[in-house]
């Protein structure tokens, strides 16, 4: 791990596209501003871990696990490969949403 010291309004570059600026320091909290292209996702570590965990759980679902979410006959409808991927993504989103509302 690289450890750098920065003061307020000082910036760290990651590659050519990502800037991390120390915006504020109050007690033991440091506020960072991050400038990155839209194709680079930026999350707090705990949010990233939760997304990863939910994606893994969604990937392990069977058609029977989500049949009530997308309709009782959805598991029996043959789909083109692209449509299957889109359906899996939508099913994962709906499954996460259903778990949140329980």
Q: If you had to describe this structure to a student in words, what would you say it looks like?
A:
There is one protein chain. It contains 3 helices and 3 strands; from the N terminus they run βββααα. The chain has 2 domains: 42 residues, no CATH class; 57 residues, no CATH class. The protein has a 3-stranded antiparallel beta sheet with strand order 1-2-3, with no helix packed on it. Helix content is 43%, strand content 20%. The model has no long low-confidence stretch (mean pLDDT 82). A hairpin with a 3-residue loop joins β1 and β2. The chain is an alpha+beta fold.
SSE layout and pairing:
Blueprint: E1 11-14, E2 18-26, E3 29-35, H1 45-59, H2 63-70, H3 81-101
Antiparallel strand pairs: 1-2, 2-3
What's the end-to-end separation, in Å? Answer: 40 Å
Instruction: Give the overall pLDDT as a whole number.
Output: 82
Quickly count the helices: 3
Major β-sheet strand ordering: 1-2-3
What would you call the structural class?
alpha+beta
Low-confidence stretches: none
- Using the CA coordinates, give the radius of gyration: 20 Å
SSE order, as H and E?
A: EEEHHH
What portion of residues belong to β-strands? 15-25%
Shape: elongated
By DSSP, the count of extended strands is: 3
Q: Helicity level, as a percent range?
A: 40-55%
Number of domains: 2
Largest sheet: 3 strands, antiparallel
